[in-house]
Amino acid sequence: MFTCYILYSKSLDRYYVGHTGENIEERLRKHLSDHAGFTAKAKDWSLVHYELFTEKSAAYKRELEIKSWKSRIRIQKLIAAKAG
Predict the structure, then answer these.
(1) HSE-CB for 49 with a 13 A CA cutoff
(2) Which listed residue, 6, 12, 38, 60, has the most CB atoms within 10 A of its CB?
(3) What is the average pLDDT score of the chain?
(4) Residues 6+ apart with CB under 8 A from 46
């Protein structure tokens, strides 16, 4: 199973979109640990949205689609629709 996910950092007030073949809790733990990359800028990332896929290519395609929006409002609407 593969996951496309969105993380949110309150301290940065930013979203991060990614995909993984790992368990999502393990992937979040890695984002919160010491590493290089964008998510290393904060230690308060939380999982706010995820979608499951059977193929890695589909999860990656969804990640690219969400990133292509370049719209914070559209991402927030996606998160709200899934939550509500």
Answers:
(1) 21
(2) 6
(3) 94
(4) 7, 8, 9, 10, 28
Contacts for 43 with CB less than 8 Å, ≥ 6 apart: 32
**Predicted pLDDT at 84:** 60
Nearest to 13 by CA among 83, 72, 74: 72
DSSP 38: G
Handedness of CA 71, 46, 49, 76 (dihedral sign): negative
Which residue in this structure is represented by tokens 């998160």? 79
**What's the CATH fold of domain 2-83?**
GIY-YIG endonuclease (3.40.1440)
- Phi and psi at residue 3, in whole multiples of 5°? -130, 135
Residue 53 and residue 67: Cα distance in Å, rounded? Answer: 17
pLDDT tens sequence across 31-68: 999 788 899 989 999 999 999 999 999 999 999 999 99
Per-domain residue ranges of the chain: 2-83
SS3 of residue 54 by DSSP: coil
